[in-house]
Design a protein that fits this description.
The complex is a heterodimer of chains A (373) and B (193). By secondary structure, chain A is α+β, with helices and mostly antiparallel strands. Helix content of chain A is 47%, strand content 13%. Chain A has one domain (45-340): Cytochrome-c3 Hydrogenase, chain B (Orthogonal Bundle). The model of chain A has no long low-confidence stretch (mean pLDDT 86). A three-stranded antiparallel β-sheet of chain B has the order 2-3-5. In chain B, strands 1-4 form a two-stranded antiparallel ribbon. The chains are: A alpha+beta (373), B alpha+beta (193). The A-B interface holds A 56, 59-64, 127, 134, 137, 141, 144-145, 147-149, 152, 154, 162-164, 166-167, 186, 189-191, 193-196, 290-292 and B 7, 10-11, 13-15, 17-18, 21-22, 34, 46-49, 54-55, 57-62, 80-83, 130-134, 146.
Chain lengths: 373, 193
Amino acid sequence: MGVVHGEQMVLNIGPQHPSTHGVLRLKVKTDGEIISEITPVIGYLHRCFEKHCENMTYDQVIPYTDRCDYLAAMANNFGYVVAVEELMELKVPEKVDYIRVIMAEFQRIASHLLALGVYGLDIGAFTPFLFMLRDRERILDMFEMTCGARLLYNYMWVGGVSHDLPKGFVETAFQFLDYFEPQIEEYNNLLTYNKIFIERTADIGVLPPEVAISYGVSGPNLRASGVKWDLRKNAPYSIYDKFDFDVCIGDGGQGSLGDCWDRYYVRMLEVKESVKILRQALAQIPKDGDVHQAIPKKIRPPKGSIYSRTETPRGDLGFYIESDGSPIPTRVKMRSPAFTALAVLGELSEGWMMSDVISILGSLDIVLGEIDR
Amino acid sequence: MIKYFRDIWESISTMMTGLGITWKHMVHIRRDNVTLQYPEEKWPRPERNIGFDHSNYNVIRSRLQVDIDDCIGCLKCERACPVQCIKIVTEKAPTRGEDIQEIGHIGVTSNSSRKAMVVTRFDIDMTECCYCNLCTYPCPEECIFMTGGPNAHKHPIDYEFSEFDRSDLIYRFAKPGTKEGMDKLKPTEKVKA
């Protein structure tokens, strides 16, 4: 008995489709229901981010970085300002470092909550989505309290942050963490160990570590394949070396190493680690200090170039900045983690069924704003 | 065979766990309610100490406002804007720091700096504004601000910035008739000279 080959059919998913997380078009070649080839067509959200940067001063770029990965705007701000500060050899006050880490970790929780919730929604579980969005909302409230915005913050500036933490922020944050930690257990009971969910995700779309590395996949997607690589640990930036936390890796708990369930579960574990970091950071944050103290009057980095990378919720975000000594950057290149994650989709979904493609695509947690820039 | 029955058992038991959680929330529906009946009810604005100090600057659910009487036309906000949504046109005032009655121009700001320019046009296109707050920091007179800032008492705070017509979203802050008034003033100056 050989494999029966039917007629090849080309199917379009997107650009407007609820499971494409933005505006993404997938050209799917199928044989019956078996996928033989997937070509992602990107560019529907292209807004010339990199070209825009060549016409703006260094601080004007920051609102644009928000709009790249709009689900983790703080992390994008963080990556950019760290790069510019490295280029300028600027030292920021300790308090600013703490505030940045706190915001970035809260953003990681918020972004992962959305990723996990929406993943459940893709698979067909509606309730966890609502629960996770409810808790994400509380984090956004805290951001609003701090900087006035809920989604696009423009919070981290070169040399500082735009606003100091408001009075009572630390207490509110601790309150939230106390409320939030038991909730993780609830999510696990509701979705993670649900048999239907496991059947849809375990052993599906297995990403071997070698393939992940050769494609440049980073972040939770890479760690789910069992590679212990986290920039916060391996190449610490800001003050991440001060905190005690683990790098979570997938272990093939319900199927094989690097399947969709692992990619989902690594995010869940990372949320727990973020809570751990937050508890340490909130306890250690210096009481006083001016967050505007180190902000330069005019941002004029010396001639030269820098490549700096940070760990966003989606992975390894790099900024290459070239300066000619003027207040306007000559070139800003952004290395987007979601782009590489999408690139591996074709390899991942070959030979799987149509419904598994949605499962695989959701587990990669891509944001099209960042891919197209 | 055993796997078959184990799968069935696991499906039922995990489904029951999930339903239990949902049921728990349904029983505590009053306590766990997180949504609002929006048009009737509204979220309160998060509290923040409102002061003149920039560190206490409140930008929550606010939009740009301009006190045109304090504006000296230095164009710093226009340059700071990353999306170029602020358009300012200025003309030289006949005498520095003096009022021009005809167009309602006030020569001295509340920070008592004397104005050399008359602002004939100060438009902010709120359809383009990205609420980044970058323009408020360079302002030497603190005349451009997010509502809720130093002049909060002057402007009510509202977070539904909706209009029926798109052109209403272009906020024109310059006093109406300033441009025409300045045009009329010019020839008389020449006659005097």
